[in-house]
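FYI - complex with glutamine, inputs then prediction.
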Amino acid sequence: MSELINLTITEAQDLLNKKEISAVELTKAHIAEMEKARFLNAYITETPELALEQAASSDAKRAQGAPLGRLEGIPIANKDLYCTKGIRTTAASKILSNFVPPYESTVTQRLKDAGTIMLGKVNTDQFAMGGSTVTSYFGATKNPWADENGDYTLVPGGSSGGSAAAVAAGLCMGATGSDTGGSIRQPASFCGITGIKPTYGRCSRYGIVAFASSLDQAGPMARSVKDCALLLHEMAGFDPKDATVADLPVPDFAAALTGDVRGKKIGIPHEYRPSGLNADVAKVWDKGIALLKEAGAEIIDVSLPHTKYALPVYYIIACAEASSNLSRYDGVRYTTRVDGKTLDEMYENTRTDGFGPEVIRRILLGTFVLSAGFYDAYYTRAQRVRRLIYEDFQNVFQTVDALLVPAAPTPALSAEAFQHMSPVDTYLGDVFTTPASLAGVPALSLPIGLSQQGLPIGLQIIGKHFDEHTVFQIAGALEQAAAFDTKPHRVKG
Ligand code: GLN
């Protein structure tokens, strides 16, 4: 049974089609592994009964020869930021800890329609704010990659840390994540898996708990580039319920995986190589460059001069939008409520009790940068610099097809170290992911090598707007060349 949790989606589809395994068997194997690995705290809510029911009806459909979804019988997990009808959706917060949505997000609905089976809702940083999954009201998630002593002390990254840990540990075959400033790519790197933040506007945000609406994007996380391509194909596409989704056809992303990158021009921006760059990260980056070169790609040095402003611009814009989005949690319409003597006091009590410290910090920062006296100095200026960052990418994509850069400045850190870092120090972890978020371009992170301590390190391939095709093409070739084994860290015992 245990080998079932090591399959890629493509391998599982093949076995399901040949009737060598059933969806029920596949689902049971994952449920058994979830039970074994509960200490990782990857899931906030497990839905094994629902999963087995879905699996049984999937098997019945197959037996009857009924039309099947493109991901029929594949067990997945959803980040607990996606509204799932009738199933608690918490955003890893206290304030939404008893929220049961009366509707389903577009992306999870599409995955359901494609025949996937939902194993449960996975952990995240509270309201997707963070890079460690330590800020969850439901406790931190652990990285399934053990430290040098064999202990599970490392963070999985975040905010989609539950998704990354679950995928890496074989607790699902793929998962939804969301990425506002790196929340798919950084945890993918920390856990040795693949994840893509598609172009802003590729996937619907309808039914995803909003953090920063001009940045939030849904995306898949899985154990191979092809699995991500298959998942994204089902998740993406026009949605009348979200006006920011592009009305463009969704290409067959998996068809991009030709393995051929000959003649592709890959840009290497020197701004991503600051003098103090972590030696392990630098080494893996050099390895990625060498592998693409060997595969026939042309490597070109480029410059994205406004990169250094991305982090402060991101934190101004993301906090501003968060302060506005989170104003809806007032204890009146839904969410937990703490009463007070007056209406204002009730709001205050509810929000003080319901939000964690990181969320409160961001609401305060966001309210400050949007306040009448400081709006122009911070918010307007940040918007202007965002435009310059966007133009950097536009310019560079006149000469290259894609960029290759690190996903994160370090491998996974220990939860202990994280707890002692200042908020600003933790924000520095987003230095390589926020530029693509601000520009809205697609970026995929895939594991390329290990640090000296044996921890995974991922690289990002950043592409042109709506050119996920090229991103997948390059990622597929790099994955083959790097031959990274994504499954050495199954939970023991
Ligand atoms: N780590 C970043 C932050 O804390 C990104 C979060 C995200 O992408 N959701 O804002």
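Residues 128-131, 159, 179-183, 211, 318, 430 surround glutamine (CB under 6 Å). The radius of gyration is 21 Å.
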